[in-house]
Amino acid sequence: MSKDLQKYAHIPLKQKSNRVWRTYEGGALIDRWKNHSPETDGQMPEQWIMSTVTARGNGRPENEGLSLIETSEGTFSLKELINANQELYLGEALAKKYGTTGVLIKMLDSMERLTVQVHPDKAYAKTVFNSEFGKTESWYVLNTREINGEKSVVYMGFKKHVTKALWQTHFENQDIEGMLDCLHKIEVQPGDAFMIYGGVPHAIGAGCFLMEVQEPTDYTMRVEKTTPGGLKIGPELIHQGVGEAKMLECFHYDTFTMEEALNEWKIEPEVLEQTETYTLKTLFNTKHTNCFGLSELLLDGEHTIKGNACFYVAVIYSGAGQMICNGETYSYALGDEIFISAAISELTFKSDTASKILLCYPPN
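Above: the chain sequence. Below: its structure as tokens.
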């Protein structure tokens, strides 16, 4: 079987739909992006892209979150394909260092505010979860909508007055307004980009549709025991089984003014290349993190991407066209999520309609 699966490393691989259950509601803007009707908010507000990890949560399907690829020989998980020949799919360096993609990509659409939370940095993840990966993540805002007349916001970073003792008191009392008041509240627009490092408290507000590129874990420590929508959250989703005291140690208790917070975490995209037919921008790169990268290709014509000995993922946010790979032509369209293996040395995108293509990269 493994020998047969290696041949798929030489063609662009489109992922099947991979919606995932979460503790908050949303998802209508994912339906809009996928051109699905009706556009519905519900308990499946995330689309996990090219995922080799499963979602955490009791009572959920065993392999929820794993990406599936349909081939001429049937449907396989991306994990199965990669394990057929890790160096071929991932690239030699990544295969040797991690043996996995090292990155997880999500499309996330919130109808309600997410719970206030934090993710582990690498040191905490290694010590507490025996994991090589923490959960540093990034947000690229793609669209927004007003919910009940409220504009889209995100919360991140402790204000200057916050101490660990105050935060613990708010948690013990489940003083949600007190906790929100500890965080900077930032109104967001499409095109805004933020880094959320492990240890930084944060929450995504209602009405945010964004791409989240992150380290490949589902470790989330929550300080709200009931979601804004009224769903009770079990202990395993509060502290991931480590206990409340250890959960509170996951937070970094550094404090910031609003200006300092924006300087620390809001990222300005940079143009790398620009012609009459395309613009290539970098959003997240080694200036910000070694955990992953994200670029944006605005295409109205043709552009060739040269391989760099590792895989990457192309997410088609808008437009349609063709991909030329190893002498063969493949179509792409709005909503496609495409895994391009390290074995592919060159791929050309040709747009039939103006396209926005998000290019996601593994750890540097």
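The CA atoms of residues 199 and 251 lie 5 Å apart.
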